[in-house]
Each structure stands twice: as C-alpha cells, then as structure tokens.
Amino acid sequence: MAIVVPPLKDELHWLTSADPVSPDVGQLADEIVRRLNKHIASTRLLTLPEVADMLRCSQKSVRRMVRDGRLSAFKVAERILFKPDEVGALVSRSRVTYIN
User: What angle do CA 50, 77, 6 make, to 5 degrees?
Assistant: First the structure.
C-alpha cells in the first residue's frame, strides 16, 4: 500500500500512465525524489522567534498559546517549530468584530 502526501496526489498521476511494458525505473525514481524534495521545500516550518515576530508578541506568549492548545507546534532537536498554515488559522480564529 503506497502512501501519497495529499498535495502530491494530483501531481503523481503520470505514474499510472507510464508504459507498463518497459518502465524506466531509475527515471521514475528520480522524478519522485525531485517532486518530493520540491514539496518539502515549499512547506518550510517556522521557528518560535519567527512566529512571535509575525504575531507581534513575545516568545513567552507563543509558548503559552501552545500550552493552552490555541496553537500546535512540533519539537524537533530542542527547537519548537510551527506550520505556517497553523499560524494563519490562529489569526483567522482570533478575528474580532468589535473593540471597546
């Protein structure tokens, strides 16, 4: 059973249309690696200081948002990392319509 990253699902349609009689496995493998690397590069994670700067708050406030469950994060090699779309979702959820 193959696992395909959802954003790549539509991009990999060419795999099923390849000539089943004489596929060039090396060329197919190179193309898969190239497309996966392109996808990984486009989904760069943000660091704690970057998120704090984007939200114009302290790093301590961002840590509090993670602890409270308002923002999800990943801890990799002692670094706290965030998905850009998660930060955007937090901003969208925090929208107000009235300020005293």
Answer: 70
- Sorted by sequence, the CB contacts under 8 Å of residue 35 that are 6+ apart come out as 8, 11, 12
- Nearest Cα to Cα of residue 78 among 58, 56, 54, 48: 48
Q: CB neighbours of 82 closer than 8 A, spacing ≥ 6?
A: 45, 46, 47, 48, 51, 71, 72, 73, 74
Q: How far apart are CA 93 and CA 100, in angstroms?
A: 19
pTM of the model: 0.57
Measure the CA–CA gap between 80 and 68, rounded to whole angstroms. 15
**pLDDT < 70 regions, the chain:** 1-23, 36-42
The predicted structure's pLDDT at residue 12 = 53
Q: What is d(CA 85, CA 92) in angstroms, rounded to the nearest whole number?
A: 10
Beta strands 79-82 and 46-47 are antiparallel
Q: Tell me the torsion sign for CA atoms 55, 59, 64, 70.
A: positive
